[in-house]
Amino acid sequence: LVQAELFQKTPPRLNDKLRCRSYPEGRDQRDGADWSIRKFWNVVTDREAQKKSCSLDPAFLRRKQQMRLPDVDWSRYNQQVLFVDRHDTVRARMAAGMLDIATNWNGMDLAVVLDRCGVDAEPSGYMDPSRAASLLSMAQASGVSSRHFTRQFQCFEVDDFYRYDVIIALDTGVLERLMSAAEEEAASALTPGYLQYFQSKTARLSDFSGWCSDAELTREGGTALLPRSLSGQLAPGLAEARGVVDIPRPDLSSPEAYAQWDAMKCSILLGNAGLLQYLKDSWPKDMPHWSEPN
Fold first, then answer.
1. CB atoms near residue 47 (< 10 Å)
2. Is 57 exposed, middle or buried (0-12, 13-18, 19+ CB in 10 A)?
3. Where are the beta strands (DSSP E) in the chain?
4. Could you tell me which residue ranges the Phosphotyrosine protein phosphatase I domain spans (predicted)?
5. What's the rounded Cα separation, in Å, for the pair 70 and 80?
6. CA 84, CA 71: separation in Å to the nearest integer?
7. pTM score, whole prediction
8. Which residue did the predictor score with more confidence, 213 or 11?
C-alpha cells in the first residue's frame, strides 16, 4: 500500500543535474541572489517539527527514537540519500548499487534518489581501469549496474549537509569525520544552531540493521521487501551481519578476498533493507498528492 501511494504521489523525475548534488530549492550556491537565511531556516524548523512530512504513528516514532535513527522529511516527495565512504571506491558504490535494485523492486526509484562520495576521495578523478574492472566483475555478480563503478570519484563537501535528506556513513570513522565537518560548519556566523539539524539527518548504515525482522528480510513473492536475487545473497550471512557495526572493506589482494566481499555485501544488504523499510514506514498517512496546492 505504501509503495503504491509513493508511486502515485511522487512527482515526475527531474533530470540528474537538478536532482543530484543540488539544493532543495534548486540553488547552485548559498551566496546566490536568491539565497535567504530566513527561507532556509524555515526549511530547517519545518523539518524539526515534521509538519505533514513524516509518519506520526506512535509506534514508528517510539521505535525511531529508541534506535536513534535520522529524521525523514517527505515534503518534497522524495528522499535524496547520500552514502559516504572513505575513498568512494567500493562500499559506498556497492551500497548505492544494491539499494538501487531494491528501490526499483519496491517501485520507489522515483522517490529515493541515490548518490555516493568519499571523505578522502580524489575530486573528479577516475578509478584505475584494472581495479574498476575487478570490482565491476564482482559487483555485477550481485546485479549491480556498471554505472556505479564507472563514474568519477566524488569528495564529500560540507554543502552536502544542505543538499541531501539522509546522509549514511559506512563506518564509525567516516561518521566522526562527518560530525567534525558539521561542527565546523555550525560554528559559522551564518549557520548558528544548525548542528542539531545536520546531526538529525546523519547515521551509519548499520544503524538500520535492526529495523527489519528475519521474516521480513527473507519473505518471498510480490510483497517481499527484497527481490529474490538479493534476499538469496543475504540469507547465508544474515546472522553474522546482525553483529556488524562498521561495514567491512574487502582486501581484494587477500586469499580471503571472496569471503571478505561476501561479508561486506551481506552487511550492506541488511543495512539497506532496514533503511528502505524505514523510509517506507516514515511515509505520512495524510500526505496529499504532489500536484495539490499547499
1. 19
2. middle
3. 79-85, 112-118, 166-169, 202-204
4. 81-184
5. 13
6. 18
7. 0.83
8. 213
* Dihedral sign from CA coordinates of 11, 13, 14, 16: positive
Residue type (1 letter), 262: D
Where is average pLDDT lowest: 191-195, 200-204, 207-211? 191-195
Kindly state which CATH superfamily the domain 2-11+77-281 is placed in.
Response regulator (3.40.50.2300)
Query: ∠ CA(205), CA(207), CA(212), 5° rounding?
Result: 100
Residue with the three cell numbers 544474515: 238
Label residues 188-227 b or e (16+ Cβ within 10 Å = b). eeebeebbebbbbbbbbbbbbbebbeeeebbeeeeebbbe
Query: How far is C-alpha 52 from the chain's CA centre?
Result: 22
CA 92 and chain centroid, separation: 10
3-state DSSP of 56-93: CCHHHHHHHHHHCCCCCCCCCCCEEEEEEECCCCCHHH
Residues 108-146 have pLDDT tens digits of: 999 999 999 999 998 878 888 888 888 999 999 899 999
Round to whole Å and give the CA distance between 294 and 289.
10
Burial of 292 (0-12, 13-18, 19+ CB in 10 A): exposed
